[in-house]
Amino acid sequence: MNSNTLQDFKINIKIKLSLLWTSVTLIYLYGDYFELYIPNKTQGLVNGENLLDSPMNLFFAAVLLAIPVVMVVFSILLKPSINRVLNIVFGLFFTFIMLLIAFTSIEPWRAFYVFYAIIESTITALIVWYAFKWPQKIEII
After folding, report:
1. Does residue 94 contact residue 116 with C-beta atoms inside 8 Å?
2. Do residues 69 and 25 make contact, with C-beta atoms less than 8 angstroms apart?
């Protein structure tokens, strides 16, 4: 055995999914943070001239962005059957949203957001892939 060979450990699917949702959450946070640097963005926030200009819009945005955060925990705690379904459903949902953003944002100041949307959609597509390929329990009779 070569002493320079590094050992690779198999990572539990629940941990993989949780780490992927953590990455998505962080990318969302960075995207929203950097968006504040767009000229006149903060002035629009102060004046109430923005996408979240009503209590209902703000609530829906809060629910939407809470899903990836909750999935970090759910991916670890839930039983495999419901866990797999939620990861596939929410993974597809967020992949679709991020691809929509990536292909409809054409303003030069939003190039960073398109970059993040591509990363986010790649990660959420990986979530769907891993959840779809969830290892099956093998019963020995």
Report:
1. no
2. yes
User: pTM of whole model > 0.70?
Assistant: yes
- Report helix, strand and coil shares of the chain as percent, to nearest 5: 75, 0, 25
Mean pLDDT (whole number) for 65-75? 97
Q: Mean of the pLDDT values across residues 73-78?
A: 97
Q: Quick check: 71 and 90 in contact, CB under 8 A?
A: yes
- The neighbour count for residue 92, using CB atoms within 10 Å, is 16
Name residue, tokens 């999914």: 17
Nearest to 28 by CA among 139, 128, 124: 124
Instruction: Give how far Cα 13 sits from Cα of 24, 62, 75, Å.
Output: 17, 27, 9
Task: List, for residues 24-61, the tens digit of each pLDDT value.
Answer: 999 999 988 888 888 887 787 778 777 777 888 889 98
CB atoms under 10 Å from CB of 71, counted, come to 25
